[in-house]
Amino acid sequence: MKKNNFIKYGIFAGALVLGVSCTNLDEQILDATEISKADPDAVLTSAYNGLRQFEGQDGIFAVQEVSTDFVIVPTRAGDWGDGGAWLQDHFHTWDANSREINTAWRQMLSSVYNCDLALGIQGIPASKKAQAQFLKAYYYYNAIDMFGQVPYREAGSSPDDFPKVWTSPEATAKIIALLEEALPNLPAKNTSDPSIASKDAAHFLLAKIYLNKAVFDSPTHTGFNANNVANMNKVIANVDAISGATTLASDYWDNFKPTNHTSPELIFTAKNINGVDMGAIRTRWYMGNHYNQVPSGWNGFSVLQEYYEKFDPSDRRIKNNDPAIIAAFGSPLGLRKGQQFDKGGITPLTTRAQNGSLPLDFQSDVANLPADGKIISQSWLERWGIRPQKYIPDVSNMDKPENDYVLFRYADALLMKAEAIARGGSSTSTVVSIAAQLQARQGITTVVNLSTLANIDKARATELWEEGWRRNDMIRFGTYTTARATMKNTDAYRVLLPLPTTALLNPNIKQNPGY
Question: Which helix (H) or strand (E) holds 20?
Fold first, then answer.
């Protein structure tokens, strides 16, 4: 194959063939005959493997969480410098060559490509085809959310041709159509394995799309706080269509423990199996933990004080101090603030000797964070920042753990329904009844009033922290480009990310406004 032809295809496919990174520009791309004879199970597995990319701390996660009011990754002397990549994300100073943006683009479009391989298999069983359609819709949803436009190939088109491009409104309509076509052939939810795409997962994703449709139908994604009643009624209908096999877990933390695949609340996950090299879910405890904690971490991601203050200090969602947690890890899991302890919860931890062996007392006072995000003060170098830890480490295997990575869960669906009601949708349920369901396991007595959009925004922030939805929520509520304590850039166009420079080799793609 000619090199320029491969490049044209690679712009769309993320330079992946059957999920394997390709470094040889002369390698042949599978033609239609080869695809039609491929093993459906193997190709579908490649399509599912794209979900692993949500588990790492970079790419999609960095875009969706580090760019918000939730976390910052400060540079600590030489640690976490990375050419300024993490601070670009948080300060909204990225450009078309920024690392995390390029990573997120490749991650989503390579995953779409693997779905298309599965859909091109002749005689693929209806259930497997429906799963590939669902996965493709999910990957496209994320691409549209971040970039506002996506390349696609028409069936039978030549790999010599550049991919065409859907605008955000066009892609939104295509995603809805994909899901509606897939729904009848998707299996019911597997209550012991929520990693299999199901009817419940499709209804959840449809609800998410209709909740954000006013934003997505605006080419510049500026349609926030739009109360389209028809869309809101579809949100409610899809949440109500989620089966009785999906209910809230009695304990919030059941959703994040090593055996979380048994939680009735989980609708869709990326599967991890103890001892098997799967996704990078281990980053969820290593990325914030200090070097001297259990497990020893990388001392990076830090929660901002303004976000922490959204919670009641006794909220169980940020303070899991169960005896087993204290015995294994020393301090409560959640949003870890204040003095930290060694296993057993008795011996106080300190910073490393070369930095004075100061008390390991996590704080997030903005006054102690330089405006450029680069900490050089010895007294704050290791201990600045409240540390997030939502997943309970699998102590039997810290690096290849059992925990499934949570993509969709029922609490989110209930909050989507409450928001749809607040935006004018009709339901036999009330926001009071929804709040009561969620309130029962929070460990606090103050009932959250979900009748206002501001309170729903806060409820989503406190329920879904670190689950990859914060940027999406802030855009929908119109707060993403509002100045805050550690982010002063109010460029409205940054609700959309720039298209990577390499993507612009396709003449059908035009850079997003402002870049």
Answer: strand 20-21
CA angle 231, 232, 233 (to 5 degrees): 90
Partners of residue 487 on adjacent β-strands: 484
Strand partners, 149: 167
Under DSSP, the state recorded for 77 is: T
How far apart, in Å, do the first and last CA atoms of the chain sit?
34
The pTM of the full predicted model, rounded to 2 decimals, is 0.94
Q: What is the pLDDT along the chain (515 residues), one digit of tens a residue?
A: 333 443 444 444 433 333 333 322 233 344 554 555 678 899 999 999 999 999 999 999 999 999 999 999 999 998 999 999 999 999 999 999 999 999 999 999 999 999 999 999 989 999 999 999 999 999 999 999 999 999 998 877 787 899 999 999 999 999 999 999 999 999 999 999 999 999 999 999 999 999 999 999 998 998 887 779 999 999 999 999 999 999 999 999 999 999 999 999 999 999 999 998 789 999 999 999 999 999 999 999 999 999 999 999 999 999 999 999 999 999 999 999 999 999 999 999 999 999 999 999 999 988 899 999 999 999 999 999 999 999 999 999 999 999 999 999 999 999 999 999 999 999 999 999 999 999 889 888 777 789 899 999 999 999 999 999 999 999 999 999 999 999 999 999 999 999 999 999 999 999 999 99
Residues in the chain: 515
Residue 337 burial by Cβ neighbours in a 10 Å radius (0-12, 13-18, 19+): buried
> Which residue type sits at 440?
A
- The answer for residues whose C-beta is within 8 angstroms of residue 30's C-beta and 6 or more apart is 17, 18, 38, 117
Nearest to 456 by CA among 488, 412, 506: 412
For residue 365, how many other CB atoms are within 10 A of its CB?
10
Tokens of 351: 């910073």
3 state DSSP class of 324: helix
Q: Residue 119 and residue 132: Cα distance in Å, rounded?
A: 7
Q: Which helix (H) or strand (E) holds 266?
A: strand 266-270
The string of DSSP letters for 198-261 reads: -HHHHHHHHHHHHHHHHHHTSTTS--TT---HHHHHHHHHHHHTS-TT----SSGGGGSSTTGG
